[in-house]
């Protein structure tokens, strides 16, 4: 079985932009996403979209059977397991790998009420003495871990409005008054109104960068004198040479031009 020479791992707005750049360049490609939500985020792109999770062996078999020649990892900054699996599959097949790293703006805001940490457990330790009402804007993936680490807190969770996510919240015992089902990113004013309505004692979020509205989440929180805990991104895996890391669409376009030149030689 053969197919497009380029395979993109995505499920983010970053991946959609990369796919649109490939469309503009007239390149065929295939996009992998983990969930149907990731497929929706891809929007109206020309490439085939494959839905489903794969481990490193399944990835290697998939890429080999389709004669892929270049892999682009544009998955979520916090998808460290996926990053490692993609890297392992590419090493096994000796495939070139380009990793898109969303630029960080973690240092754009400094404030006495802004706490930066490197893990969920550390974030929960900081949150415990700060009040009962904890607003999570960290997504649905780790809700069970937050329930376990903050059993005495009244959790408020902002999550994607999908049936699967809402069922997950319900299974964890979260009531309707605790679930805020919305699809972002959101403006400063929107987030400020949310904080004023929910009245959290502390907010826990992630270092999501500009596409995830990091500053728009943090600034109004601090303006209202609400402590904000940010879980920083995992350290980048040693999965690709420095030359194969890109942090902007322009850098990706340059890398694409180089790949096309090498392919033609």
UniProtKB/TrEMBL annotation:
Keywords: Cobalamin biosynthesis, Oxidoreductase
Pathway: Cofactor biosynthesis; adenosylcobalamin biosynthesis
InterPro entries found in the cross-reference section: Precorrin-6x_reduct (IPR003723)
A Pfam family per the record: CbiJ
Signal sequence, start to end: none
Gene Ontology MF: a single term: precorrin-6A reductase activity
Gene Ontology biological process terms in this record: cobalamin biosynthetic process
PANTHER family named in the record: COBALT-PRECORRIN-6A REDUCTASE (PTHR36925)
Protein name: Cobalt-precorrin-6A reductase
């Amino acid at each position: 079985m053969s197919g497009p020479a380029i395979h993109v791992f995505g499920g983010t707005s970053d991946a959609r932009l990369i796919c649109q750049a490939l469309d503009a360049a007239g390149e065929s490609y295939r996009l992998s996403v983990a969930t149907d939500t990731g497929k929706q985020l891809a929007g109206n792109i020309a490439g085939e979209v494959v839905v489903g999770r794969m481990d490193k062996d399944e990835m290697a078999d998939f890429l080999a059977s389709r004669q892929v020649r270049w892999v682009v990892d544009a998955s979520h900054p916090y998808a460290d397991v996926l990053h490692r699996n993609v890297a392992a599959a590419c090493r096994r097949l000796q495939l070139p790998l380009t990793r898109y790293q969303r630029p960080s703006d973690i240092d754009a805001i400094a404030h006495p009420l802004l706490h930066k940490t490197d893990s969920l457990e550390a974030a929960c330790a900081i949150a415990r003495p700060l009040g009962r009402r904890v607003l999570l804007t960290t997504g649905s993936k780790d809700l069970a871990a937050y329930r376990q680490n903050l059993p005495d807190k009244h959790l408020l969770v902002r999550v994607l409005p999908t049936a699967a996510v809402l069922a997950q919240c319900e299974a964890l015992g979260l009531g309707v008054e605790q679930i805020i089902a919305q699809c972002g990113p959101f403006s400063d004013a929107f987030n400020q109104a949310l904080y004023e309505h929910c009245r959290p004692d502390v907010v826990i979020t992630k270092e999501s960068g500009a596409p995830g509205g990091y500053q728009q989440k943090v600034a109004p929180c601090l303006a209202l004198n609400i402590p904000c805990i940010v879980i920083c991104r995992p350290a980048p895996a040693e999965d690709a040479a420095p030359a194969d890391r890109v942090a902007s669409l322009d850098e990706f376009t340059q890398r694409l031009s180089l790949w096309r030149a090498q392919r033609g030689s």
